[in-house]
């Protein structure tokens, strides 16, 4: 392992000509030796040329969507530390060295940049409340505290990147990154970062309701994939209770009179009980498959080298104000 870790920045961009040069310049000035890789995602303006003039390595990703960019970048690049940051200059690049030092000093595999608004209008209407809603969902479903699951400002180790499947196509990628981190229980922490308005002349690509429903859909998919017994168990309990409510009066009446005058209700209640058993059995089987998949993913994770230890923690570096998740 070299004495100085190789650090790369992954900067997804779609029509960010107004902001990308400043992001690239700030990264080079703030993190000495960093390699900045700008992925031009189907831009129709001068994003690529502006990034190239600022000193970035520019690649073009023809499949539109941030998830496609991240998947391509994680496959293309080989480094010790990966910094993911948007190209719209809304995140404070000055926080990058602290995030990298936190990852190396842990050592952690994932450092999440928790957004702190520098200006009162940095969040678009509805985005902050939506983010809190999704944070609550993930915290409840995966029993790991998450403060800002939709943040696009993160630092990863090599073993996180090379064990992350990256299946999402668009802005759901942050949800997938968060769920992978909490479900795999990798060593991770959170660091507050500055978050401000977009650069003048640039336009947000987020669509509040459209992207919100996409994120909700990918969350439901990941929840069923990673916590199947929770989903099928809840369905089984609901079917059991409904069958009990419908069937118990029929049973009581049969016990008293020996007759079943409400046969359709009795048939429905029995069917619901059978379905409850089927869902419960399906949950047990899917839980076993999910466990095997997690074990396989863990083995791939363990094949990669740990982040280079900086010794900063032993030297008395103060712990970041964050929630730590250790594997």
From TrEMBL:
GO MF annotations, alphabetized: glycosyltransferase activity
Methyltransferase listed as a keyword: no
Protein name as catalogued: Glycosyltransferase
EC number, UniProt record: 2.4.-.-
Annotated TM spans: 229-251, 263-286
Family: Belongs to the glycosyltransferase 2 family.
UniProt-listed InterPro entries: Glyco_trans_2-like (IPR001173), Glycosyltransferase_2 (IPR050256), Nucleotide-diphossugar_trans (IPR029044)
Source taxon at top rank: Bacteria
Glycosyltransferase 2-like domain ranges (all copies): 10-162
UniProt source species: Kocuria oceani
Enzyme category, top tier: transferase
